[in-house]
Write a structure and sequence with these properties.
The protein has about 190 residues and is α+β, with helices and mostly antiparallel strands. The protein is built from 4 helices and 4 strands.
């Protein structure tokens, strides 16, 4: 009887710890979702305004200058690393690390299986150098508006601007509905 009570007690303790850990992860992921929405909303607002003012060439400037500033400000406020990355980057400063490459490839597999890109995300708590970090990624779908700078038929003025700013640009040739890349967050956990 004593052994059964010990087993039950151990199970209760383990279950409680597991639930507390799960609750902590769930809360952190929910915070990451809110943060990605905030980043996306701010970036989209600036892109829409730039497109109205100066077309796609002006939008390139937003992605070149404003997107990193938005990410840096939100990241500083939160104490997190926030960025965008892709399997085909425009800015070599946004190259994915090995973990991000695996997630992006997994997103492509999930897309091929019919999953909705707009809902696609992944998170994992990783431990490196004794520190736990919550890694989170949210897929970015390619919309029709993205094609002015990321499609196959890009205006020559936009191409000239892209070539000047991003000599190693790989982020062209997308079609509507492709995975353009992902928002990526690393937060202490």
């Amino acid at each position: 009887m004593k052994n059964i009570l010990l087993v039950v007690l151990a199970w209760v303790i383990t279950s409680t710890i597991g639930c507390a850990g799960t609750d902590k992860v769930d809360a952190a992921v929910a915070d990451n979702r809110v943060t990605v929405k905030m980043f996306g909303k701010q970036l989209k607002g600036q892109l829409v305004a730039a497109m109205k003012e100066g077309g796609p060439v002006a939008a390139v400037n937003v992605c070149n200058i404003q997107a990193p500033l938005i990410a840096a400000k939100i990241g500083k406020d939160k104490g997190w690393e926030i960025a965008r990355t892709s399997l085909k980057v425009r800015n070599v400063g946004n190259l994915p690390d090995a973990w991000e490459v695996n997630v992006l490839q997994n997103f492509e597999t999930r897309k091929a299986a019919g999953e909705d890109i707009a809902k696609m995300e992944y998170h994992e708590v990783v431990v490196s150098n004794g520190k736990s970090t919550l890694r989170y990624m949210k897929a970015i779908p390619t919309s029709a508006a993205c094609l002015a700078c990321h499609g196959s038929s890009i205006d020559s003025k936009v191409t000239a601007k892209l070539d000047a700013l991003y000599p190693s640009d790989q982020a062209r040739g997308y079609k509507e509905g492709d995975i353009r890349g992902a928002f990526t967050i690393s937060s202490p956990f």
